[in-house]
Amino acid sequence: MKKIALIIIGAMLSIVGCIQAFRYIFDYNTLAQYGKGYVWGSMILLLIGLVLIYFGVRKKKTNR
Questions:
Q1: In terms of pTM, does the model score above 0.85?
Q2: Who has greater pLDDT, 1 or 14?
Q3: Is 62 within the bounds of a domain?
Q4: Which of the two ends of the chain, N or C, has the fewest CB atoms closer than 10 A to its terminal CB?
Q5: pLDDT value for 63
Q6: Per the domain annotation, does 63 fall within a domain?
């Protein structure tokens, strides 16, 4: 159940980060410092979402 929650939360964070970042990423050079921080924050949100998905999908190694 915890893994499913990690995958769902990670997917939601990734989608939100993608939508926010790609809206302004092509105009990055014309943005002010605040706008650049907004894009970087969105990219960090995307990265956190991907890490959560990774931990949700990852299988534990068993020692035999």
A1: no
A2: 14
A3: no
A4: C
A5: 67
A6: no
